[in-house]
Amino acid sequence: MKNKPNEFDEYLQQSEPGRRDKAQTWRTAIGLQAVDGLTPSGYLVETAKRHIEGDISIDEVRALLDSYYEAKASRTTDDADTEEADKVSANITKLLNERTFSFSPAGLAAIHRRIFDGVFKFAGRFRQCNISKREWVLQGESVLYVGFSEIRQTLEYDFGVEREFSYKNLSPDEMIKHFAQFISGLWQIHPFREGNTRTTAVFAIKYLRAMDFPVANDLFAEHAWYFRNALVRANYRNYASKIEPVLAPLELFFRNLLLNEHHELKNRALIVAAPQEMSQSSDRTSTGQVPDKLIPDSPGICRLLRVVGDQELSVKGMMEALSLRHRETFLANYLNPAIDQGFVRLLYPDSPRHPRQKYLLTVKGTLAYQALDKKA
């Protein structure tokens, strides 16, 4: 899923700063298309070179692309993908050449709108549906994204927390870790139907520039696919398979980007083992008593385990599934005992009042749930 890395080398190695900067921006914009497996056309590359050499403006590049695709008599799926890659590359190039930036949910939406102008009808609009995406690095599983009804509230929360945070006096390690966590959380919201990773990447570059951090754009050009997979791994958990989110790969990416380190970035190192259900034989004993011992004594906790299962649910979601109306009764008789006894845990344990707070089964809870399922 890599685009050709050497198309603009002649400008990067020998040209004056103006041409070199344009070539670098084009290289980044084109490289970012790899996050969705897209490759721009040869026509785009040649048109980009005319822009680098100063023969045409970036707006003329877009006009030429529009005319080029309007003139095509027939369109195939491949043509549509190439058209998206071409137009998005030009839009990103224009965005990255501008020194403007708005740190806000509206600013993020504006970046998406400008990146996908002329490509998606929903450009710049928050999605109105829930989504899941099968990930290669997760063996076909999906990250759990924020529900569409919570997007705006969650964005406001995350931007508000980040706005109050100070990078002053942080060590490089602390700075990288915090920035990786913020970008990871922003991506997990997945506010748009499509184009979230490219939007996140452009936002990250412009945010870093706004804070006067040097950004070596080569990394996005060469390792866009790794960037996406690192975001996926930073936001995936599967308690049944004892898989937890891992932020370290994303930190390595940003260490290379900001500290000019040279950590090896291998996509295959990020692949998780395929989720596996515990085999029935693994629970067997000579007496058959071990599964029964896993089952809680409390009927309320048992009901809660059956409701949660392999999901991540809010308090409201659990109460609705249990047909309960009184929150205090639910907390006292169901949720709090389940947490105290180690069957259920918070999705955000360090922030109990997090607006995205959900609850899910621990490994112990998953074993008990499986035992209950076999007993039913």
Explain the overall architecture.
The chain has helices spanning 9-14, 17-31, 42-52, 58-70, 77-96, 105-115, 151-164, 172-189, 196-210, 218-222, 224-234, 248-259, 290-294, 299-308, 315-322, 327-340, 363-375, and strands at 344-346, 359-361. The relative contact order is 0.09. The protein has a two-stranded antiparallel sheet with strand order 1-2. It folds into 3 domains: 1-98, no CATH class; 103-276, Fic-like fold, CATH 1.10.3290.10; 280-375, Winged helix-like DNA-binding domain superfamily/Winged helix DNA-binding domain (Arc Repressor Mutant, subunit A). The chain is built from 17 helices and 2 strands. It is elongated, with a radius of gyration of 24 Å.
List the helices and strands and how they pair.
Elements: H1 9-14, H2 17-31, H3 42-52, H4 58-70, H5 77-96, H6 105-115, H7 151-164, H8 172-189, H9 196-210, H10 218-222, H11 224-234, H12 248-259, H13 290-294, H14 299-308, H15 315-322, H16 327-340, E1 344-346, E2 359-361, H17 363-375
Order of helices and strands: HHHHHHHHHHHHHHHHEEH
Helix/sheet category: mainly alpha
Shape call: elongated
How are the strands ordered across the major sheet?
1-2
Distance between the termini: 47 Å
Number of helices: 17
Largest sheet: 2 strands, antiparallel
What is the name of the CATH class of the largest domain?
Answer: Mainly Alpha
